[in-house]
Amino acid sequence: MTHTAKSFSLQPFQPTPLTTDVTITGHVLREGPSLTIDYLISGNWKKVVIAESNLGNSAENDTRPNDTAPNNTRPNDTAPKRRDRLWEKTCFEFFLAQGTTHDQQQPYWEFNMAPSGDWNVFALNSYRQGLREETAIANLPFAVHSAPDGLRLSVTLNIAKLITSEASTAPLQLGVSMVVLLRADTIEKGKVKGKRNHMIEEEAAEEGAVKETFWAIAHPAPQADFHHPKSLSLQL
């Protein structure tokens, strides 16, 4: 049975002053067919834009500051569920492929998890081709909670649902990434000086401005591309 433990640090694509005070790190643990990934967003994490939580009023699961926590449990029709296009907002992601190497011709899976509790899993035949919901995964339970040191998400997956042969020992390639929406107006006006950063000052002055940022272990392409084979850089 394979036992592997690794840590990771996500880097922003094209870092800016907006991303310098946010840190995203985590750990991966594989024990046979069980794969656990823990994420931690720390630093100035409260400028991360988090969609309204659907996880009810549990202090353990609520991802918002105390002064915005809900007073009542959410209605059943807004309970966490499988949803599409989660990457349009703040979204925890990982990509998984079987094998000792991964290239554009090989199949892989994409996992999306929103702080709200919504989720999705997709199977692809090859690089960005044949995208479809993975029916072998009927649910994807994970825990999200905030703490003084940051926002945490932990997910555990039984890969035997995807890899039916030698699930305990099959080599895997893993890519960990995030889409993170950041409040640009949290940069204090006047803190950034100089002609070179003039546009940042203007952005900071915009009331409620939100910027989309892309984070991954590696950015091997000239554009942010979590699907790139070399983005699956952790061997398990």
Can you describe what's shown?
It contains one helix and twelve strands. By secondary structure, it is mostly beta strands. Strands 1, 2, 3, 4, 5, 6, 7, 8, 9, 10, 11 and 12 form a twelve-stranded antiparallel β-sheet that branches. A hairpin with a 2-residue loop joins strand 2 (22-31) and strand 3 (34-43). The N and C termini lie close together (12 Å). Mean pLDDT is 83; it is low at 54-75 and 188-205.
Number of strands: 12
Q: Segments where pLDDT lies below 50 for 5+ residues?
A: 54-75, 188-205
Q: State the distance separating the first and last CA atoms.
A: 12 Å
| Structural Rg | 19 Å
Counting DSSP H or I runs of 4 or more residues, the number of helices is 1
- Average pLDDT works out at 83
Q: What is the N-to-C succession of helices and strands?
A: EEEEEEEEEEHEE
Per the principal axes of the C-alpha atoms, what is the gross shape? globular
Beta-strand content bin: 35-45%
Helix content: under 10%
Secondary structural class: mainly beta
Largest sheet: number of strands, sense, barrel closure: 12 strands, antiparallel
